[in-house]
Each structure stands twice: as C-alpha cells, then as structure tokens.
Amino acid sequence: MHSYSPALYFIIFLNGKKVFVLLRSKLKNHYYAKMITNINYKGILAANEVNKITFPRMSPPTQRIFKCEVGKMLVFQSGKFRLMGVKEPLTSYDNLPFKVAQLELQSATVVDDLGYSLNLIDLSRTLTSRRCCYEPELFPGLRLTDFNPLCVNVFASGKVIILGVKDLNSISDLCTDVQLAVLDIIL
C-alpha cells in the first residue's frame, strides 16, 4: 500500500462506467521510483581508468561494452561512457566497474497507468493533427506532441509511456500533466 499525502481526486463517468481518477502529484516520490523502467547515464571516467581498458584492435578502436550489476557500460576510448539499462536511480558509484569522475542523467523512461481504457481513434479525431500523431498501421499508440521534446505515447489499455525524461524529480508533475491532458480531451 502506498502512503498518500493529501491528494486531489475526483470521480468521472466514461461510457456509463464510474472511474476513480487520482491526480498523483501529491503522492510521495518513492511511488514514482517504481514507475521508472529504464535510466541512461552519461559521464567521464576518472583519470587513468581508460588506460586499464584494452580496446579491440579494430580500425578505429573506439569503444568497449562492460556488463555490471546496474546495467551495461559502453566505454569510449576518449574516457567518456554511457551507462544504459539502469532500473533505479544510482545512489553511489560502488557498483560500477571503474572509478567515475563525472556522472549525469541522460534520459529515463517512465510507465504510468491512467486507470481506464481509451478509444484511440476517437481520441485522435478529437485532437488536432498538430497535438497528436496516431498511425495504427505503424504503431499501436497515440503520441501526444504537446510534451516535446519528450515522447509521450498513450495506449488503448490506458498505459502511458514517457520517453526522454531529463529530471527524475519532475516525474510526479509530468504524469499529472499527461493525465490532465487526456482528461481534458475526453471530457
């Protein structure tokens, strides 16, 4: 069970069904940490760490991939690296195979559930073409373009996938904004 601080919620009716909608901007942050499915970091290795790595004798020898406890680390010969597939925010650098001088968030993927299913065809007709992109022959989700540069995909099941999040502290507000945008369209 999640612990809630005072939350704003209301009940709406969709197709004759009673739907409870909770605006989760008031939820505690640990709830949103469970919604993060993938985090990618970028950074620079500490001095002399690149010298410990043997790069393959290819032309040009530029990168090497290492598996570590938290994800995969792609190390470039310049000393820069990408850490991909991390499931939760890093609190320390102890689980990394090399000493790190600098590390910053590159992007994160967040999954949310609106709690109700949607008719994407009706939703795409309601929106203007500059606010959404829906091509069911190519992709089963509706992309909301109001949130550029983020990629926000809404699926008929009510699931929302947000790609390109740059600030983990903004997830709560972002999910609430997406939920309000969808509710604004269907009501």
Strand arrangement across the biggest beta sheet: 4-5-6-3-7-11-10-9-8
Low-pLDDT stretches? 1-12, 18-33
Helical proportion, percent range: 10-25%
User: Count of DSSP E strands?
Assistant: 11
Alpha plus pi helix count: 3
Mean pLDDT: 79
CATH level-4 homologous superfamily of the largest domain: TATA-Binding Protein
Kindly report how far apart the N and C termini lie.
30 Å
CATH class of the largest domain: Alpha Beta
Strand proportion = 35-45%
Shape-level CATH architecture of the largest domain: 2-Layer Sandwich
Overall radius of gyration: 21 Å
Structural class: mainly beta
Number of domains: 2
Biggest sheet features: 9 strands, antiparallel
Q: Helix and strand string, N-terminal first?
A: EEHEEEEEHEEEEH
What does this structure look like?
The protein has 187 residues and is mostly beta strands. It folds into 2 domains: 28-34 and 114-186, TATA-Binding Protein, CATH 3.30.310.10; 39-107, no CATH class. It contains 3 helices and 11 strands. It has helices at 29-33, 120-126, 171-186, and strands at 8-14, 17-23, 36-45, 63-67, 72-76, 80-86, 100-113, 132-133, 142-144, 151-154, 159-165. A 9-stranded antiparallel sheet has the order 4-5-6-3-7-11-10-9-8. The protein has a two-stranded antiparallel ribbon with strand order 1-2. Strand 8 (132-133) and strand 9 form a beta hairpin. The longest helix is centred in the last third of the chain and has 16 residues, at 171-186. It is elongated and about 60 Å long. It starts with 7 loop residues before the first strand and ends with a helix. Mean pLDDT is 79; it is low at 1-12 and 18-33.
